Amino acid sequence: MERQEKEVEITKEKPSARRGRPKVIGETQRRQSIVTAAHEAFVELGFARTTTAVVATKAKVSKRSIYEVFRDKTELFAAVVGANQHLILDLPRPQDETLPILETLIKIFRLDIDDEAERAREAILNLIVRESVQFPELSDYLYEHKIIRSREKLIEWLQREAERGRMTIADPLLCAGMLMDIVFGALLPRRRLLQAVDRARRTQDIKKRLEIFLRGIGFDAP
């Protein structure tokens, strides 16, 4: 009788020891792995040839897992662009920043990044431009959903610096457009620059153009 009671106690203890199956991967981590895989696929294959099956294979998740996070491929593309905005512009800036204006512009346009980060930036810029030309609806989606706000952020920065008395800006919208053209017009050449020395020379050229811009608005860059 005593033995039977012990067996009953052991049997009762077993279910409580099983706490349920833990999640293999958290939601945030899963989303990040999907976005990373999609980024790789979009750069390699383009928007049209990238399928959720390809992304699922690269991310090591099911297609269902992708659709639990993203409604469609367009939303996934937007997530990739949004996750890489830091490679394009470093904005907003600290409210009380006191760096010289030229140096601040260099940081805003990420002209001080290393070679690896520069290649990553080139890849995302080319991806955005290439796919927006082929699929204008992608560009519309990115702007309508405020995924890309580079120009707007730059305008806000110019206005704030003017209010602080650090710059004289008659037309922030016009100046923002000029700065974007100066930098990104040079960063998106027709011919890819494969050598680090060529990319470094291009960066120096952009810095000189920024100096010319600052002199043009009556600001003497140090």
UniProtKB/TrEMBL annotation:
Location of the DNA-binding region in this protein: 51-70
Record-annotated HTH tetR-type domain positions: 28-88
Compositionally biased tracts (Basic and acidic residues): 1-16
Spans annotated as Disordered: 1-23
InterPro entries with a match to the protein in the record: Homeodomain-like_sf (IPR009057), HTH-type_TetR-like_transc_reg (IPR050109), HTH_TetR (IPR001647), Tet_transcr_reg_TetR-rel_C_sf (IPR036271), TetR_C_Proteobacteria (IPR039536)
Nucleotide-binding recorded as keyword: no
Coiled coil ranges: none
Any GO MF annotation of the entry: transcription cis-regulatory region binding
UniProt keyword terms in alphabetical order: DNA-binding, Transcription, Transcription regulation
Pfam family, one: TetR_N
Name of the protein in its database record: Transcriptional regulator, TetR family
Organism classification: Bacteria, Pseudomonadati, Pseudomonadota, Betaproteobacteria, Burkholderiales
